[in-house]
Every structure is written in structure tokens, then in C-alpha cells.
Here is the input.
Amino acid sequence: MASNEPYTDRPQQTQIAYLDGAPQTVHIRRAKLVIHPGTEFERELVFDQNVIKIGALDDNDLVLDDDTVSRHHCRIVQEDDSYIVVDLDSTNGTHINGVRIREAYLSTNAVIAVGSTDIRFCPVDEKVPVEPSSTERLGNIVGRSVKMREIFDILEKIAPTSATVVIEGETGTGKEVVAQTIHQMSPRKDGPFIVFDCGAVPESLIESELFGHEKGSFTGAIMSRKGLFEMAQGGTIFLDELGELSLDLQPKLLRVLEQREVRRVGSNAPSPIDVRVIAATNRSLEEEVRQGRFRQDLFYRLSVVRLFLPALRDRTEDIPLLMEHFLGTMECNLDRQGRQLLRGITPDALDALRTYHWPGNVRELANVVERACSFAETDAIRRHDLPEYIIDVERASNGLQAPNSGEGWTQIPDRSKLQEEPFKKAKQEWISTFERDYIDELLARHQGNISGAAREADIDRKYFRQLMTKYDIDAENY
Here is the structure.
């Protein structure tokens, strides 16, 4: 690599700066390229993606009408706090200050000679303070808490860019809804929005699903098939449960992000892609990196912008607004004319919802509302329309939780005793209690229909059966 030093002001990549867990600023980093600087043909283009491809073909980000420029001549790559220009074995070379380079750091106002075309590189660094939005709704996201309105402000700032986004938060906090909102607010809104759950597909099929395959590339490949990245061309791909991606597949995803091209299984010919990547996980990716389960280079490449969604128990002031939203949009609460059947909730029922700890977050609240639509006998949700484990606060406070199957009370692990256990064991006991009661509740709601229960839980049916076997739950008991 040439020894040109990177620019001294060294602005960080597009990111959100947090202080004591609260977002303070959105740091938006772009690259401005001035083509034919100082001439009558001078023009400027601004890019916010991590890789800028330059060449004569139309699939490049910067297309140059110059006979001395190769089809795919070079690319400019954002590497952490620097930019690097990489020559792609071009015929006439890529030069900086008259020196032909293979790779070189770019300094501010450096002039890159691409064939006979000069391009001045100018980094654009913008810091924008995060302030709570005045709106309580953004796309299909609702919330009046300060945390949510700060997220609204962040989304309004990053959605128009091409920045890769990682959304972190507990299961059920609404990560896919946030991803959809980013897509709908972006210039890609007319393109496809493709969803892929990394934890719901057998590991042996993930590579083919994401990148496609050629006919005969493996047993059962009877025809060539596009992968999801190719299907998302011009739009957004949402990689849910990214932390479930195996270490073997992580470098292949990294290569796609860096090269902006995919190679189908069984093919040597890469296909260029123009896709924005949004990923989500309920794990701490930083901890996964420390434990050696997630590649550090992929973590940094993905984490251009990281969003942290709060748990519902940390924003209970949003519950009335969420209830209003669900009652106005759920089909089970609308008659044939689209009018609401249930129009509200009684104060004591709302108090019960605010008291509950919501391990399933917003998704669990939506399920509770849907259940209430079936049980309610008036035009308002009353306390006894709610599941028993929510309304019986006294029993819950004594360490008892009632599943809806009517088979009795499940003993919640005593927190004080759990604290005496090693962290791993205590965590597993608590999770096991939640999993068992969650599966029990869903099966009761669906009268033992495993497919319906798995669909509502938004998990694979085979995995749902595995959980039933794990806790010795029989669907015939419902």
C-alpha cells in the first residue's frame, strides 16, 4: 500500500455517539468527489456508502465516459476512520500525485487520476445533535417516551443515507418494524424489502438462500436460482437474528459488504449488487466478538450505525399509545366497514398492563390485545379480559405465574436465590421458566395447534416442537 497519509482531521464513520446510554449526536460521514476540478466540465457528486466503484460500465457508482478508463477501474473504500483507493488491475492505472498506486490512503483534497480523468477527494463530515422528535408516530412505530422520540429523530437523519444499520434489542421490541420504516423513508422505498431470518433456516441452506446457486452446484440444485441479495437489488435486505450466523458464513457476508457483489454457489462469476443492508440481533454483538463467536471485522463493517431499542418495561408510558395503535389496526378488531369493535381500555386494565414486566415486549402486548378482542364482551378491554398471569398481580408478586392452560401455577425462580447461583445457571433457570410458560400460553390460545402457535411466536415450527419436547409439553392437553 502506498504511504500517502490519511487526512489529519480523521472524521469517524457515520455513527451515533452515546453518553451514559443516551444518544447525543449523529455523525454522518460522506465523500464528495469533484470530477474534472478547475475546468469548465467540473461537477460534484456526494456518496455516503462504504464503497464507491468507479469505471466505464453503467454498474459503477461513478461512471466515467473516458476511453482511458477501464470497465471497473478502481474503488474507494471506507476503512474505519480512513478512506483508501484501490486499483482494480486497470489498463492505464490509478495515480495519486503522478505516482501509480495499487492501494493508497486518501488525504483531504487529494487528486486521483483515473485514466485521463482527474477526481478530487473531499471528505464531508457532519455532526447533528439528537433531539427528541415532536412526533409520536413514525411509519408503523409509535411511542411518546423520550427514548422512542430520540430514535425517531435518529431515523429521520440516517434513513436518507445508504449507511448499513444494526438494530439491537430484546426479542419483540420491533426491530423489523424499525427496518421497514428506514426502508420506507429512504430513496430505496420503491425497491424491494427482503427479510431473511438467520436463525430460521438450516445452516446448510443459508449460503444458497442469501447468494443463490447454479444448476448442478449441489444435490437437489435442479435449476439456477437467484439469492436474496440479488432479489433485493435496488432495495433493502433485512438480516434478522444476525448473531445466529455461523462463523463459516460470516466471511462470505463480509466479502459481499466489501466488494458489493455476490457469487452464487457453484459459480466463479460475481454479480454486482446495489443493496442496503440492515441487520438485527437480540444478542450483544460486542460480547459475541469477545467470546469469539462473531468476527470482529464483520462487526465493524456492519456497525456503521447501531440502534438500541428499549424494552417495553423501560417505556411503559408508551403502552396507552400502543394500545390505541393496535386497536385501530388489528383486523380482529375491525368490522366489515372497517370500524373498531373495541374502542378503548378501562383504567384498571391499563394499570395491570403497566405493572406487568413484558418479557415478550411489544410483540407480547400485541398478542394480549388480539386475545382480548376475542374475550371482550363490551366495547372496552376490561381487567378480566386480560390473561390471568397479567391481572393477578398479587400472586405474581409472591413468585407465582398463571399459564392460560389452567394446569396450575408455575413457580418463578426466586430472584434472591438466583443471585446466589453462578450467572450462567441463574440465567438459564430464568429463561427456561419464561420459555415453558410462553409455549404453554401460545398453545392454549391456539387450542393445541402447533403451526398457529409457532406462526404467532414468529419462530420455525421445528424449533417450536423442540421447545415442546424440551419441556415435556403435549399439544393434546389443550
About this structure: The mean pLDDT is 83. The first strand starts at residue 15 and ends at 19. Residues 421 and 427 are 9 Å apart (CA to CA).
